[in-house]
Structure formats: structure tokens, C-alpha cells
Design brief:
Strand content: under 5%
Number of strands: 2
Helix content: 55-70%
Order of helices and strands: HEEHHHHH
Shape: rod-shaped
Structural class: mainly alpha
Strand order of the largest sheet: 1-2
Radius of gyration: 28 Å
Length: 188
């Protein structure tokens, strides 16, 4: 069983995944381009700041590549954007933990400061939330495409009930037939 087989192809949440990926991509692209514009040295740890965070050319390059990847996911959309958002969000969180561990050590070649670590955690959670939105929950609503895909029997039953109710509502009250009408002089 593959994960892609369990995902609905087209649903109303695809727009959420696209917007989330595009928004986060634009933020990362802006940060990366500002780093390139400031002409930072590649692996410098001299604490040059861009938008309040320390940076160097390597971090700017990584930011641009990840931003372009997220932008590509926003263009493709759908389940691909959702899955990509979850993967990138997880990588941001792992990066935050890693850089928290190497803070003020020689292994900190991307020149992360505490503000970068906080940004990595926040951006990771935002991207991860956009990727998981409407997809991961213990109580998905029954009109959610992921719930319908995971419970095809119950979804078909609910759809049949809905069809029966709408048919009954549009048909109006039941009509009397000639055999059901009372006849004069006869009691029921």
C-alpha cells in the first residue's frame, strides 16, 4: 500500500496547501536574496545580519533553493504540495534542533544565531501545519476527502442516505392514491 493511493486526487484543501507553500517560499526567497544582495562571504561566521538573523552566502543559497522548491510545490499543488510542506516543515524543525545543539561551536558553519533557531522552529511549524491541515486529525469531518478515502463503505452509506433525503425532500409529501381515499359511507 502506497501513501499516494490513500490520498484523494482533487479536493478543496489543495488551495490551502498551495497558499501555504507559496507564502513560506516568498519569505525564504526574500531572506536568501537579501543575503546575496549584501555580498556575504560563503561560510563566514562573522555574524552578519539580514532581517535580524545572522547569515552567510551558504545559508542564503539554501534559503533560495528551499524557497524555489516550495514555490514549485505551490505550482504543482494538491497532494504533492501537502506532502512537500510536511517534509520541508519537518526538515526545518530538525534543522532548528541541530543548530540549537551546535550553537557557538565550530560546527555552526551556517552561522546560526538564536534568532535563526527560533525562526527555523516557527517556519517549520508553519510549513508543517499548512501541509497537515485537514489531513491529519483524529476527528476528521465526514465530508473531508481524506476521511471519505479511508472509509469508503461508510462514505458510500452516507452518500446514499443524503441522496435518499434530498429525493424525499424534493418529492414533497406522499400523495394519496384512489385506493387510500376514504369512500363515502365507509369507515376505516
Amino acid at each position: 500500500m502506497k501513501l499516494q493511493d490513500e490520498l484523494p486526487v482533487d479536493h478543496h484543501l489543495a488551495l490551502v496547501y498551495r497558499i501555504g507553500a507559496a507564502l513560506c517560499a516568498l519569505i525564504l526567497l526574500a531572506f536568501g536574496c537579501l543575503g546575496f544582495a549584501d555580498a556575504l562571504s560563503p561560510f563566514s561566521t562573522s555574524e552578519d545580519t539580514i532581517a535580524g538573523m545572522t547569515s552567510n552566502t551558504a545559508l542564503s543559497c539554501i534559503s533560495v533553493v528551499v524557497g524555489l522548491t516550495l514555490l514549485g510545490g505551490a505550482v504543482v499543488g494538491g497532494n504533492f504540495a501537502s506532502t512537500l510542506n510536511m517534509i520541508v516543515g519537518t526538515l526545518f524543525l530538525l534543522s532548528g534542533f541541530w543548530h540549537l545543539f551546535v550553537l557557538d561551536r565550530p560546527a555552526n558553519f551556517l552561522d546560526f544565531g538564536m534568532t535563526n533557531v527560533v525562526f527555523s522552529f516557527v517556519m517549520g511549524l508553519v510549513i508543517l501545519t499548512f501541509g497537515m491541515y485537514g489531513r491529519v486529525s483524529s476527528k476528521l469531518s465526514h465530508d473531508n476527502p481524506y476521511w471519505r478515502r479511508r472509509h469508503p463503505g461508510a462514505a458510500a452509506g452516507e452518500e446514499a442516505d443524503l441522496k435518499r433525503r434530498t429525493t424525499a425532500a424534493t418529492a414533497g409529501p406522499p400523495r394519496e392514491t384512489a385506493s387510500q381515499r376514504p369512500r363515502p359511507g365507509l369507515r376505516r
